[in-house]
Amino acid sequence: MNRKKRLIIVSNNLATGGIQKALVNFLKEIADKYDVTLFIYSYSGKYIFELPAEINIIKANAFLKLLAVSQAEAKKEGRFLCLLRALLVVWTRMFTNRLPLSLLLFTEKRLKGYDAAISYVQSPDSRSFYGGCNEFVLKKIDAVKKIAYIHCDYLQYGGNTPRNKKLYSQFDHIIAVSEGCRKQFLQAIPSLSSTTYSVKNSVDFIDVQKKTDCSPVPYDRGKFTIITVARLSEEKGIIRTIDVIEELLEKGYEICWHLIGDGRQRKYIEERIFSKSLEGQILLHGEQENPYRYMKNADLFLLPSYHEAAPMVIEEAKCIGLPILTTNTISAIEMVEQCRAGWVCQNSTAGIKEGLEYILRNREELQHIREGLKKQRFSQESIFAQLDAVINGEHANER
Predict the structure, then answer these.
(1) Which CA distances in Å does 146 have to 2, 105, 120, 133, 243?
(2) How far apart are CA 308 and CA 151, in angstroms?
(3) How many Å from the N-terminal Cα to the C-terminal Cα in the chain?
(4) How much is the pTM?
(5) Same domain, yes or no, for 238 and 345?
(6) Is residue 195 part of a domain?
(7) Are 319 and 384 found together in one domain?
């Protein structure tokens, strides 16, 4: 009987977020196919309860954990660690994070005997006290192959630095979570084209479909129901879309926009909605354990972001059979338009308005998209096959 390959994945935490959710889905998919170990900086967050029982978990020591917690959370670790984190943050902002990362990595023991080591979180800019997953894989793990994931628009996220270029050049393979992400990364570091691949994020389609049918939310069929599931932060484009909804309502369209999610901009969004007297037309539901029950009976999924990499919620909406309108971000064309899952509009307030108004005037196209999505088959088999090929050195080098 062949030995299962030993795989170690390094991440910072399991709190709410797209990367964390993708990681949990990824672990579920590979847990029975490899001997899997998760090295986690901070063993915290809602997704710890969804980790597959088959995997091994190694928790970072208290020093390395500082890279994955806030200053408020560090207070719970004791006065010394709280003070240490504060000092390292100040140093990082004044100089760079290079020395703090080196000091913290030094405190952790070396891990040996793995066939592949994967850094699941990209490196931040040099003035951020965060991350360190790439450095840990490169400096503290002995593995036959070392792989780094890219979950971002590399040219926009702030970490496109000479130091990070040097770090990524030391990996055997780079996995970008969409072709758009891969192209952006290679614009920054073209020398890595032969070792950089695109492999989609893992989505637990069975779980999504199961939760979709769990007490689905009914809506007023006299109104066109739009839903957005997103973190309430500036880059998600919520504020500009409030203005669009107001204009469409003034034109006489009967619409209602439901927002699922929370974030630092929530209070500002609530104030903006109140100032325009749109409390009955734009509804905030906050963070939801099961957002899919809100999606099932909606008419349209709207993603009005300024920047996105490869949002999993698009794949989730597709598997539910919900047509999508998204602004033109780096993966929008391949994830939505090329899959005939909806529409891609210009990334502007005017573009969002034009896209929504077109759909409102052409409901038959919306129904055609919905019927097409329901005929599609959604599976993770091809995603696992791609990943397995990278780990085993069998990935076709076609670009």
Answers:
(1) 22, 17, 11, 12, 47
(2) 9
(3) 36
(4) 0.91
(5) yes
(6) yes
(7) no
SS3 115: strand
Mean pLDDT split into 10-residue runs, the chain, 399 residues: 88 88 92 95 91 96 95 93 96 95 96 97 92 96 97 91 95 96 96 94 91 96 97 96 98 98 96 97 96 97 96 96 98 96 98 98 96 87 79 60
CB contact at 8 A, 236 and 205:
no
Bridge partners of 118, per DSSP, are 9, 147
User: Do 21 and 141 fall into the same domain?
Assistant: yes
Angle at 214 between CA 241 and CA 370, to 5 degrees: 55
**Helix or strand run (H / E) with residue 171:** none
Q: Encoding tokens for residue 362?
A: 């052409």
Q: Which class for 67: exposed (0-12), middle (13-18), buried (19 or more C-beta within 10 A)?
A: buried
Return the CATH number at 294: 3.40.50.2000
Indicate if 83 and 130 belong to the same structural domain. yes
In a domain, residue 397? The reply is no
Pairing of strands 56-59, 224-229: unpaired
Q: Which two tokens stand for residue 61?
A: 């020591």
Residue 295: what pLDDT? 98
Domain that holds residue 326: 205-375
DSSP per residue over 84-106, as a string? HHHHHHHHHHHS-SHHHHHHHHH
Concatenated DSSP letters of 185-233: HHHH-GGGGGGEEE-PPP--HHHHHHHHTSSPPP--TTSEEEEEE---S
Q: Are residues 175 and 140 in the same domain?
A: yes
Q: How many whole angstroms separate alpha carbon 273 and alpha carbon 256?
A: 13
Tell me: do 61 and 145 sit in the same domain: yes
- 98-106 helix and 79-94 helix, angle to the nearest 10 degrees: 150
Query: How far, CA to CA in Å, does 93 sit from each of 83, 84, 102, 106, 162?
Result: 16, 14, 16, 21, 18
364 and 228 in a common domain: yes
- The domain total for the chain is 2
